[in-house]
Amino acid sequence: MNLALQNKIALVIGADGGLGTHVTRTLLESGATVIGVSRKIPQSNSQGPSFIARAADVSRPEVAKSTVDEVATRFGGLDILVHLVGGFAGGKTIVETDDATFQRMFDLNLNSAFYVLRAAIPHMRRAGRGRIIAIGSRAAENPGPGVGAYSASKAALVSLIQTVALENKDLAITANVLLPGTMDTPANRKDMPGADTSKWVQPASVASLIAWLASEAGKDVNGAVIPVYGSGL
After folding, report:
1. How far apart are CA 168 and CA 210, in angstroms?
2. What's the CA gap between 156 and 148, in Å, rounded?
3. DSSP state of 111
4. 3-state SS of the chain: helix, strand, coil percent to 5?
5. What predicted TM-score, i.e. pTM, was given to this entire model?
6. How many C-beta atoms lie closer than 10 Å to residue 147's C-beta?
7. Which tens digit of pLDDT belongs to each residue from 136-160?
8. Around Cβ 136, how many Cβ atoms within 10 Å?
9. Which stretches does DSSP call E strand in the chain?
10. In whole angstroms, what is the distance from residue 175 CA to residue 144 CA?
């Protein structure tokens, strides 16, 4: 077992998703205590004594703040924040996109991250250290037709994370964002049954990269936008 994150407190937002389960497992194997947050995540999902499940809807600003504050108070701080929450909508041009869809993409892919970051950064600044890793999308830099709302929200997330990196570079706090291509998750296999999955990104690979960025070894990487496109590049 790699114990590079021993005694570290990690908050994983979106812990029960196709990527979140891999991230949680990898952080636990690295020695961290992991608080996994999702809208619905029973404690029965626990992956061991160092895992705590917390059901919360961080798209609501007051819930995001109370959740982060509760974790930091209970465990004496917050060392690692991994934000995996997001959603997808596509199939319509900009002209065809309705207000509700556009707003939903920003609520899921940007606003929830903003609320969590706003709550978590003060705790990290008081401690003088912290690691922030967010999951974006290849579409943030390579948008395509029919996914305008999704691409715009993911591009805004990149800007948000890079701003966090600049605003906190005076301390040992880093903030980075990963841009994966299509990941090999059960949900994506169900939605795209005829796709060539051999070219998809493996969640375990992304989880390993997140754990490395969260460790001391990743301390010099800050404000990076890291593509993880897999063999389907």
Report:
1. 19
2. 12
3. I
4. 45, 20, 35
5. 0.93
6. 20
7. 999 899 899 999 999 999 999 999 9
8. 27
9. 9-13, 33-38, 51-55, 80-83, 129-135, 172-180, 225-228
10. 27
